Amino acid sequence: MWLLPVGSLIAGAAARIFYRLDCVGLQPPRQGPVLLVANHPNSLVDAVLVFAVAGRPVRFLAKAPLFATRRIGWLLRAVGAIPVHRRIDDADAMQQNVHAFSSVFEALSTGAAIGIFPEGVSHSEPELARLRTGSARMALGFSSREGRSFPLVPVGLVLRNKTAFRSQALVVLGEPIAWDDLAARSDDDHDAVRELTDRIDKALRRVTLNLEQWEDEPLVRCAEEIWQAEVAGGADEPDGHIARVRTTTEILAALRRQADTHWTGLAASIDNHRRRLERLRLSPQSLRSRTDVTTALQWTLRRLHVLGPAALVIAALSAVLYWPPYRLTGLLARLAPPLEDVQSTYKLLIGMAVYPLWTVLVSALSWYSLGLWPGLLTLVCAPLIAVTGLWIRERWRGAWSDARRYFTLRSRSSLVETLRRRQQGLGRELQDLYQAWQDRYIPGAER
Question: In which domain, by residue range, is 316 found?
Fold first, then answer.
């Protein structure tokens, strides 16, 4: 477990370089036993993301076959991962899981944090898979031995485009699950295991996106954005976004079951509005943007630092210097299995090897050509230039997008005003629909 103490630093750097990572919610306890239960959309990268935000070392449970692979088996052992045997891998080996439970109990008794993915398998489905009972049994097994409960923290991983470099990743840390009333019952109590598994499922659904089908995603996203722009009135925390998407999905499912004809018409109107905005490269929130000259001047002044000569030199230097490892990582990743939920794992692991090796190679060439101190300076400065250049280029893309939106809003003012009025009407219809849903499905809900 030699890598475990610094694992969070390495995971944090890797996660924040590969993704544009945000984390919201309550920080898990920094000391004492804790079980972090997370959804599993992205293979080994999920452990990297949880590790990155946990604020402490985390030992994960991982499927036993991974430990036998030369490419990552050494890494799992280095971070103290605990092997678990799954029925789909080898039904005859299931009896060996008694050792996994013993290892978990021993780790928890020393105050360790344990990470587990109770779905039991990484997948690309639009909602949580049915949870296995292992996490509940481990929690009850340890608590019955210790005579007390301990924190069970749900962790939601929300990825917009999980295989894409620098795509958005959101980690939602939920409130610890309430289960003091079950803590004295053992892991042999099937009713207690089932009840705690249900509570873990409900807690995970509160911090994750769950759609009936991926085709619903653009419609649900647009409806949520219209609600946020027209009803909620502006910016909000990401976990608020999760809650609204969850509510929108629940309403959609309920109305489908009832074959509600009004919803069919409203859904078509929202989808038509979404398509018109996409053609203009606008969003529901951007229709509320100010387009006066003062706002444009303030926007320009705030971005001067990324438009100057120094920023141009750093961005260009980083792009040229690290173009070879970027291309090599992409080429090697294409040799990986085509399954969507493992592509980012291969990209991340390959990149974690290729980029440092390239940096060492460039530094060695600098040392050979220019001397010791230039070589050491290259070794220190090259990664800083790479990260800074990446940050600058992303700010350029954001600035270009903002400028294009500003000129679209100014030059198509008549059409934009029509879209604004239409969106306001859609917001009122969504509010009426939400009120009707509350009246029908949530008796006594606060108004």
Answer: 293-411
